[in-house]
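Researcher: Sequence recovery benchmark, item below. Answer with residues only.
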């Protein structure tokens, strides 16, 4: 009976592994696509911020010699750039959907893999470290931008 249960678990695990092996290349492509989208969006945000900073300096210069028409035009440009900056964040929704699909795939394989490893015994459960380089950038929630920070930024831009 124990052997029958073991065979059932092994077959279930092998089935999940086969599905994962078939779907993992697509999942990797999706994650690379998300990486490209986020990189493009980040570059766009930085370019827009550069333009806004240049406009801010122009506003300072105009403040010395008031010209209402030029000030209005510059304010309109800043409003348009701010709107474009906000819209450039649309990638987040799409990337979130892709990431959720990949996570579901990985979760569907996790339990069967653990069952196979448990069945194989203690010697087979030793994890092999992934050493593809150290992660850089914000990695912890305490260093990440909080929603209040984002709200303050948007409020300062007139949103």
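Model:
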């Amino acid at each position: 009976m124990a052997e029958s249960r073991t065979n059932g678990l092994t077959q279930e695990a092998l089935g999940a592994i086969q599905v994962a092996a078939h779907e993992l290349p697509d999942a990797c492509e999706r994650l690379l696509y998300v990486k490209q989208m986020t990189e493009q969006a980040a570059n766009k945000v930085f370019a827009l911020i550069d333009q806004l900073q240049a406009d801010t300096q122009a506003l300072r210069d105009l403040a010395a010699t008031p010209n209402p028409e030029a000030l209005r035009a510059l304010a309109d440009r800043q409003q348009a750039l701010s709107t474009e900056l906000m819209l450039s964040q649309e990638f987040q929704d799409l990337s979130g959907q892709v990431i959720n699909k990949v996570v579901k795939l990985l979760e569907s394989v996790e339990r069967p893999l653990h069952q196979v490893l448990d069945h194989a015994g203690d010697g087979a459960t030793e994890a092999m470290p992934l050493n593809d380089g150290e992660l850089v950038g914000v990695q912890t929630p305490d260093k990440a931008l909080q929603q209040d920070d984002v709200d303050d930024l948007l409020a300062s831009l007139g949103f």
